[in-house]
Structures are given as structure tokens and as C-alpha cells.
Specification:
The protein has seven helices and 16 strands. Helix 1 packs antiparallel against helix 2 and helix 6 runs antiparallel to helix 7. The longest helix is centred in the first third of the chain and has 27 residues. It starts with a helix and ends with a strand. A hairpin with a 4-residue loop joins strand 14 and strand 15. The protein folds into four domains: 59 residues; 167 residues, Immunoglobulin-like; 45 residues, no CATH class; 79 residues, no CATH class.
């Protein structure tokens, strides 16, 4: 930044010296020298303005300037400017004092519009509240609170929504008025298209207050964070028919299942709920039921992080399928042991958080597939 700044100062100094020489040459009657030096000064000044000033402006933090924001002239504003131009030329051509008074009033309205619109966006604070977790492609609630910290002046006619480039998608909200030292809360639905860790840092605020001549926009900080889990597919899109994942198969041994294993003589330590009354009536001896043990309600999922460059879409689908499989199994009461080459867990929240942040790697090792009932991989 310092190099363009020093170059600008040097060129402008040369332009000022050329302008002073042009003035002196003009007083001495040297018209050609005065003209050449004046053109040289003008050319240097224009070159600095076109080539160096924009480079300097990109490095300036304009937020400290009072009443700073972006202005866009509306259709009504252009019509008003056209009317001001007509009155200006009419006043100059006719030298009519009444037209000068009308022109002064119109210019005062423009100045008042700029002042009030700048004051309208001062001392505002925005607080965004979103869930700490959400699912990709599914809407979640968002609340944006607008606080007007001005002592006396209310805030009028504000529209606010997601800033340009923000990953959060939510509809624009409108607030008609917020009185001084008060706040307003707007509730809506937001959405994140992809998994990952996201931060809502800014909201875009705009207003046409007070006369609608200008559309004024500005960004305000609104800190909020959310981790977006992978998209959860419907259960009917996941093929579980090839595995007995719900513990319906019985083993040939005693246990606490629901299928009958044998009928034997009753002993005092047995529960009376298991007495088989029909068999007891036939034999005149108390008989009790014993049940067969069921297969363990546990499944191991092996997730392979391997992927080549260009496999991004396939990897995202694999991540979504893995998250959906773990989600539906755990929600059905089945214990899931989720493992990769470097990580494993049995907790649903931990699994979803891992899959929300996992990245593909062409050097990832193969997970221990010999221990898994289900292997999820992109390897050929």
C-alpha cells in the first residue's frame, strides 16, 4: 500500500509544479508553454486518479467514516434529479428569484434525504439465533433481532436478509419501525445446501427511507455458528433387506428373546409370568417357559475416506448414505459401531459431526473391513 501512496504523492507534486509553471508562463504571455504545462499537469492528475487511487481505495477500511454506506439511485430519484436539472437551467437562463428559491428547496430536500437516511442506519445491532446443528437441505428456524440503540430517533423501513456470498439461505424480512431503545425480532426459515461448519457473520440491510430517492444498503455483523450434518435419505432409499439388523434371528440357547426355547418344570426362582398353564394342567405339575436368545442388535459400519480427484460428487453421496444408514439404525434401537481408518464411535451425534466435516483423501488407508457387516467405499 505504501508504494502506490508514495508514487501518488510524487506524481501529484510534479503536477502541482507544472500547474504553477503554467500560471507563471501565462502571466508572462508565453501561451504555448502555459498550454503545454497545463496539459501535462492535467494528464498526470488524471493518470493518478485512474491508476493509483483505486488501488489505494481497495485497502481502506471505510467503516470508520460516519454515515458511510452504499447508495443506489432509484427510479423516483432519477426523476427528481431530472426535475432539479430543469429548474437549474431555467433559473440560470431567466435569473428568476422564485426559481432560485424553488431550486434551493429541492436541493435542501436532497440534503435532508441523505442526512435522514444516514441517521436511520446508525447505532443498530443485529443478533442472529440459529440452531447449533442442522441437516443439509432441510429448513431450520432462524431468528434475527434488530436493536435500535439510538436515544431519540427511531428506525424506519428496514429490509434485511443474507449478505452476498453467504451460504445461509433465508427470506428477506421487513420492519416498518423500531422505536429508540427498543428491539424487533423476525422469525423465519433458513437452509444450508451442503454439509460442513458454517458461520453467519453478516446480514445485508437496506432502506429507501425517507423519500425513496436512494436505495441505501449496508452490512451489519451478526455472529452465529452452525454445523450442518449430511443430508439424511428416507429409510425406503436404504437397502437393509440383505442384513438381519433388527435382532429377529434367534440363537439355539437360553436368553431373553420372544421365541419359545423349551418347557421345563417350574422352580421357585422362576417368574410366575412364565408359567405355562396349559402344559401344567395336562401334567398336573407346574411347567414354565424358557425363551431363545436373539442375535445381538449391533452392527459395525466401515467408512472408507478414499477417493481420487474428481470423485467429489460420488464421495458426497457416500457420506450422505453413511449418515442416513447410521441415523436410521440408531433411531431403530440398533447399536452402531462406526469406524474409519483413524476414528470410531457408537454415538449418533459424534458420527454425524464426523461425517459433516470428513474430507476425501487419495492416501487414506482401508478401514478394518473384516470386522464390519457393512463397508462403504469408493474403491474399485
Amino acid at each position: 500500500m505504501w508504494k502506490p501512496f508514495m508514487m501518488s504523492i510524487g506524481f501529484l507534486a510534479v503536477a502541482m509544479m507544472a500547474a504553477l509553471y503554467s500560471s507563471a508562463a501565462g502571466r508572462d504571455g508565453r501561451v504555448l508553454a502555459a498550454m503545454i504545462s497545463a496539459l501535462l499537469a492535467l494528464g498526470i492528475a488524471l493518470s493518478v486518479a485512474i491508476r493509483l487511487v483505486p488501488r489505494l481505495a481497495r485497502h481502506v477500511d471505510w467503516g470508520w467514516l460516519p454515515f458511510f454506506s452504499h447508495y443506489h439511485v432509484t427510479n423516483e430519484g432519477w426523476m427528481y434529479f431530472a426535475a432539479v436539472t430543469v429548474v437549474l437551467f431555467a433559473a440560470i437562463n431567466t435569473a428568476n428569484n422564485l426559481l432560485y428559491m424553488v431550486l434551493s428547496g429541492m436541493l435542501a430536500v436532497l440534503a435532508l434525504s441523505g442526512f435522514l437516511s444516514a441517521l436511520n442506519l446508525q447505532q443498530l445491532r443485529f443478533v442472529a439465533r440459529i440452531p447449533s446443528r442442522c441437516y443439509a437441505g432441510e429448513p431450520f428456524p432462524i431468528h434475527i433481532q434488530l436493536e435500535n440503540d439510538k436515544r431519540f430517533f427511531p428506525t424506519f423501513s428496514l429490509s434485511f436478509g443474507p449478505a452476498v456470498g453467504s451460504a445461509f439461505r433465508f427470506s428477506t424480512s421487513y420492519v416498518a419501525v423500531v422505536r429508540s431503545r427498543e428491539h424487533a425480532i423476525q422469525a423465519g426459515q433458513a437452509l444450508l445446501p451442503k454439509r460442513g461448519q458454517y458461520s453467519l457473520r453478516e446480514v445485508a440491510v437496506s432502506s429507501r427511507y425517507p423519500f425513496g430517492f436512494f436505495f441505501k444498503d449496508r452490512r451489519f455483523a451478526a455472529e452465529a455458528q452452525c454445523i450442518c450434518y449430511p443430508e439424511i435419505l428416507p429409510e425406503e432409499q436404504i437397502d437393509l433387506a440383505s442384513m438381519d439388523l433388527r435382532g429377529t434371528d434367534q440363537r439355539f440357547q437360553r436368553g431373553f428373546g420372544s421365541d419359545l426355547y423349551m418347557i421345563r418344570d417350574y422352580v421357585p426362582s422362576d417368574s410366575t409370568r412364565h408359567v405355562h398353564w396349559k402344559a401344567s394342567a395336562k401334567t398336573s405339575v407346574l411347567k414354565t417357559r424358557e425363551y431363545a436368545a436373539e442375535e445381538s442388535r449391533r452392527v459395525t459400519l466401515a467408512f472408507d475416506r478414499y477417493g481420487n480427484p474428481g470423485d467429489d460428487e460420488q464421495f458426497e453421496r457416500l457420506v450422505s448414505y453413511a449418515a442416513s444408514l447410521a441415523y436410521h439404525l440408531i433411531e431403530s434401537g440398533i447399536e452402531v459401531n462406526f469406524m474409519t481408518d483413524t476414528w470410531q464411535s457408537t454415538q449418533l451425534e459424534a458420527i454425524l459431526e464426523y461425517l459433516a466435516l470428513v474430507s476425501m483423501s487419495d492416501s487414506a488407508d482401508l478401514p478394518p473391513i473384516d470386522m464390519a457387516e457393512v463397508t462403504l467405499s469408493l474403491r474399485g
